Amino acid sequence: MTDRIVLAARNNALWCDAVARSHGVACTTDDVAWTASTRTPPYYPDAVTLSPDAGEYDVLARIDDSDGCSVKDSWSRLDLSMEDFARLVVGEWVWLDPSVASTRLAADSRWQRLTTPAEMAEWVRGWASDPDAEAILRPSLLDEPGVHVLGARASDDPASPIVTGAIVNVTGEVAGLGNVFARDGDVERAWSAAAAAARTVTGGTPLVGWEAGASVDAAVAAGCERLGPLSVWLK
Description:
Layout: H1 2-22, E1 27-29, E2 33-36, E3 47-49, H2 56-60, E4 70-73, E5 86-96, E6 112-114, H3 117-127, E7 147-153, E8 162-171, E9 174-182, H4 187-202, E10 207-211, H5 214-221, E11 225-234
Parallel strand pairs: 3-4, 9-10
Antiparallel strand pairs: 1-2, 2-3, 4-11, 5-10, 5-11, 6-7, 7-8, 8-9
Helix pairs in contact: 4-5
């Protein structure tokens, strides 16, 4: 399982890297961790561990660990409580193998790839939980290699709002599936439809991601395997 968690964690770190760079944040990636030189946008960590052997100070020495700092502990092995961090989220890495039959996924013909800044802005308005969050994911992400923004409107009317969506980030051997949302709250159907739509742009590439709470069950219902736990720490 460790090798697959390495792939999933690195994929997630590279997505965090793309988001951070879109805000002008300089980042560093090596075999131990991905780290940001300054504070990242809301909901995004300042570091992601990329090795199960990464230690607390391997990570903290590279980042601004003042109040507001967050660390994604990809193997849930760190203890940052001694540095006044609290464990904010406990989630799980998930893996959808290409061998899982597509008939298990709730394909929805309304899902499409969004390619223009205007479409991206619509997608963000559907995804964002509050107006301040709309500034996090910028249209420049559409130019990132391997990034695909997917979404579905409320109806076949092209003027209807985008009500469900996800982002796919292809990095070598895997494709990350994240930022899955559904305005109606049906996370299970949204995750399954997002996975089906992701397959149309990634082919036989395994899908990876991390989820927490009910979203883990939604991913498993779509055919995902649970790979192992991760934690997000916040100071």
